[in-house]
Amino acid sequence: MKKRTLGNSGLEVSAIGLGCMGMSFGLGPAKDKQEMISLIRSAVERGVTFFDTAEVYGPFTNEELVGEALAPLREQVVIATKFGFNIDPDGTPHQQPPLNSRPDHVKEVADASLMRLKTDYIDLFYQHRVDPEVPIEDVAGAVKDLIDEGKVRHFGLSEAGGRSDSSRARRTASDSTSERILTMVARAGSGNTAGARGIRNRLRSI
């Protein structure tokens, strides 16, 4: 498997990453948990090291799935997860406002994600959507605190509006990258086990 370096931070990942959202959220009914755990571990065996999830996928259930699947393989992989939506600890989402990147909330999300992912550090912590109510410098400052505490290793922006946000964030936090992940579940298509078989066939060709 070829490798890629994300951004300018030196974070090296496999050229093909596995976006895990559709395994439990967003693309029809959730797939069989044990089959998805097997699929994720098969991806690692075939050289995939980059796995993407988010608190909003479920919410929470996708992070739990990824955490359980990768716990025995933690030192071999890079786990990316995202923050930025206004979700209560019990999973209740809010629409007024739908986004929440206040620094205290970002830190709460990180702690909760660490528990669900069964790890003591997040390799790549993305802001899922830019929150217009919170200056990007404040967001980056919160993630920098998490980096300093050893809870996060790299900071990124997902679907940021333009270079200005990235540049301002980069001046505040030392690491920044943009999202470039092949979501293989979505590309496999169906919301049933045939989709999982399609992903396995793609992995065999790597």
Overview of the structural elements:
The chain is α/β, with parallel strands linked by helices. It has a single domain (3-204), classed as TIM Barrel (Alpha-Beta Barrel). Helix content is 37%, strand content 15%. It is built from seven helices and seven strands. It has helices at 33-45, 61-70, 103-116, 136-148, 163-172, 184-188, 193-204, and strands at 3-6, 11-14, 18-19, 50-52, 78-83, 122-127, 152-157. The strands form two sheets. A five-stranded parallel sheet has the order 3-4-5-6-7. Helix 3 (103-116) links the parallel strand 5 and strand 6 (122-127). Helix 3 (103-116) crosses helix 4 (136-148). It is globular, with a radius of gyration of 16 Å. 42% of the residues are buried. Residues 175-195 have low confidence and may be disordered.
Work out the count of structural domains: 1
Low-confidence stretches: 175-195
Count of helical stretches: 7
Terminal CA distance: 7 Å
- The whole-number mean of residue pLDDT values reads 83
Q: Helix and strand string, N-terminal first?
A: EEEHEHEHEHEHHH
The proportion of residues in beta strands is 15-25%
For the structure shown, list the relevant keywords.
206 residues, alpha/beta, TIM Barrel, five-stranded parallel β-sheet, two-stranded antiparallel ribbon, 7 helices, 7 strands, 37% helix, globular
Topology:
Layout lengths: L2 E4 L4 E4 L3 E2 L13 H13 L4 E3 L8 H10 L7 E6 L19 H14 L5 E6 L8 H13 L3 E6 L5 H10 L11 H5 L4 H12 L2
Parallel strand pairs: 3-4, 4-5, 5-6, 6-7
Antiparallel strand pairs: 1-2
